[in-house]
Task: structure prediction
Amino acid sequence: MGVEIERKFLVAGDGWRGAVRGAGTPIRQGYLAVGGPGLPSLRVRLAGTEAFLTIKGPGGKVRAEFEYPIPAEDAVAMLALCPMAQLAKVRFEVEHEGHLWTVDEFQAPDALRGLVLAEVELDSETANPALPAWLGEEVTDDPRYNNAALAAALAQPG
Result:
């Protein structure tokens, strides 16, 4: 079974920009199902020229994750089927003391422009990576910062 173990943080400054490895990757993603408390989500992602279909189980730091590459043309067609707002972001990679951090800078929808989140994937639940100085509040267990929840919230009126 695929398992994802990660910690997620708000980013509190631009200190990460000087440590970016390579160019950022534009990502467009949508949800065919957003899950919810105790339910999985089904995501379609177009990352640069690559595309993936991902099923994520419920949870915070540790949860089931199954990701499958799909043709980019299929991803574009599936994104058109997504019933709620699609997320657009640029993903950057930053090395910090032996761990690879991904920093997502949201571009769209406008309500998310300026949101910057950083994640680090871990080998075990007990791993305790050194935290970069540019991190803000940890939001690993705050369901509001789950990408599926962000997309779902934008679909809500008001």
